[in-house]
Amino acid sequence: MKGSMLKHPRSERPAPEVLATADVTIPRHELPAGEMTPDDAYQIVHDELMLDGNARLNAATFVTTWMEPQADRLMAECFDKNMIDKDEYPQTAEIEARCVNILSRLWHAPDARQATGCSTTGSSEAAMLGGLALKRRWQRQGRTGRPNLVMGINVQVCWEKFANYWDVEMRLVPMDGDRYHLSAEEAVALCDENTIGVVAILGSTFDGSYEPVAEICAALDAFQERTGIDVPVHVDAASGGFVAPFLDRDLVWDFQLPRVSSINVSGHKYGLVYPGVGWIVWRDAQALPEDLIFWVNYLGDDMPTFALNFSRPGAQVVAQYYNFLRLGFAGYARVQGYARDVATRLAGMIADLGPFELLTRGDELPVFAFKLRDEVTGYSVFDVSEALRERGWQVPAYTFPKNREDLAALRIVVRRGFTHDLADLLLEDLRRHVQRLEKQAVPARDATTATGFHH
Ligand SMILES: *Cc1c(COP(=O)(O)O)cnc(C)c1O
Asked: Which of 71, 100, 199, 337 is deepest in the core (most CB within 10 A)?
C-alpha cells in the first residue's frame, strides 16, 4: 500500500509504521490469516474512507451530519447499550418512553398520558409498523378482498417495500402537470372497502413540499358519509414531523385531525440525531391492535414492544433525548428556522442566476428542487450535478416519476450545519460551472448516463 500524502490533523496523524510497512495487498474479501495491530487496522480503514464524499457537503441527504460534541460524547458512552435490554438498562428504556411522550404532545395526541409509540431504526421500520397496524385493523373488520394502500407516486421507497413484503396492493396517484404530490380528490378516487389507509407525506422527498393532509382527511370524511367506509390516514412525516410543529404552527396536519391514526418521523433527519433512529406514534392505544404487541421482561414487569428488530443500539435514542432537553421548543424552532432561511435565500439566488427555474422554494421543508429552463438545450441537470461534484458538492439530479418523466430536476436539502456562508460558496461554484456549460453545444449526460441516485 502506498503511503497517504494527505496532511492529517495532529490527532489523526497516521501511525508512522503503517505508512512505510503495510503489505502490498490487504485482503479485502476474505478474512486475513493473521492479526495486525489496532493502529494499523485503524489507519487502513480510515484511509480508505477518505474516498467517501464529505458528509457536510452532501446536499443530497436528509440525514444529520453534524451534532454537538456533547452529544457525540454521550453517544460514545452508550455504544454498548442494547435498546432491547429493558431490564438491564431501565433508564434508557425510560428515556425512550419520554421521547414518545414528547412527540405525542408535540403532535397533539388527544391524551398524551396514553402515548402509544416506540423508537425504530428509522422511518422505514416505522412505516412497516404503521402499515402493519393499518392492515391488521382492516383484517379485523372481517374483510376478505386484497388489501390496498393509497398514496402518491412520490412516496419514499419504504412504502413500496411495505406493500411488497406484506402483500398489499399499492394504489399510486401519478403526478400531473405541476402537481408533484398527492391531492385529496385523487386519493379518494382510489379508495374502496379494501383500502387499509391513505399515506400522506409531510415533506415529499422529490421537492420538499407538504401534501395537503387536512384536505385529504376532509375528503375522506365526505367519502365515509357517502359510502360508510372509514379509511384511516397515516402521515409519513419523516422530515416534516420535526419541521412543521416549530415553523408552521398554524398548519393542521397531525392528531388534531381525528382521521390521522399514526405518524412516523426520522429522528436522524430534522430530529437532528446521527443515522439510526426513527419514531412512530399512534393517536391512542386503540389505533394499535394489541395482537401485534410482544411483551418483554422489564424489571420483573412485562413491557410492551412492537419492532422488527430485536437488538438495536441505544445511543441514538439517548442522543434524541439530549436534543429535546438541550434545544427545547425554542431551540428546534431556531435551528429549523435558520435552515429554512438558508434554503429560501439560496433558492432565490439560484433563480436569479438565469438558466434555472424553481419547482419549490424551500419554504416548507428547507428543501427545494429546480430545473433548467426549457430554452437551455446545450447542457442538462445531470451535467450540472456532475460539475458540482468536482468540488465535492453532492447535488443530485433525477427525473420525476409517472406522468412527469419528462421533468429532470436538481434538489438541495438544507439541514443543520449548512450555513449561509456554505450556501454562498455553493452558489459561486454553480455560477462558475454554468458559465462554462453555457459554451457546451449538447448535453454530455442524461438520466441514463448519470451516476445513480436513490431517494
Ligand atoms: C427518508 C424518508 C423515509 C425513509 O426514512 P429512513 O429514516 O431513511 O428509513 C420515508 N419517508 C420519507 C418521506 C422520507 O423522507
From this structure: 199
Domain span at residue 248?
A: 73-326
| CATH code where residue 117 lies | 3.40.640.10
Question: Could you identify the residue written with the cell 397496524?
Answer: 133
Number of domains in the chain: 2
CA-based nearest residue to 213, from 265, 282, 260: 260
Q: How far apart are CA 32 and CA 346, in angstroms?
A: 49
Pocket of ligand 1 from Cβ distances under 6 Å: 62, 122-124, 156, 158, 201, 203, 205, 236, 238-239, 266, 278
d(CA 384, CA 374): 15
Ligand 1 atom index nearest CA of 125: 9
**What is the pTM for the complete model shown?**
0.93
Query: Of 295, 326, 357, which one is at a domain's C-terminal end?
Result: 326
Q: Specify if 46 maps to a domain.
A: no
115, 264: one domain: yes
Element (H, E) at 358: strand 356-358
Pick the atom of ligand 1 nearest to 127's CA. Answer: 10
Q: What is the grid cell recorded at 238?
A: 419523516
Report how far residue 385's alpha carbon sits from residue 450's, in angstroms, rounded to the nearest whole number.
9
The reply to whether 311 falls in a domain is yes
Over residues 80-107, the pLDDT tens digits come to 888 888 778 888 889 999 999 999 999 9
pLDDT in tens, 196-236: 999 999 999 999 999 999 999 999 999 999 999 999 999 99
Is the same domain home to 218 and 348?
no
Q: Are 316 and 133 in contact (CB under 8 A)?
A: no
Q: Which three cell numbers stand for residue 274?
A: 446521527
Residue 56 covered by a domain: no
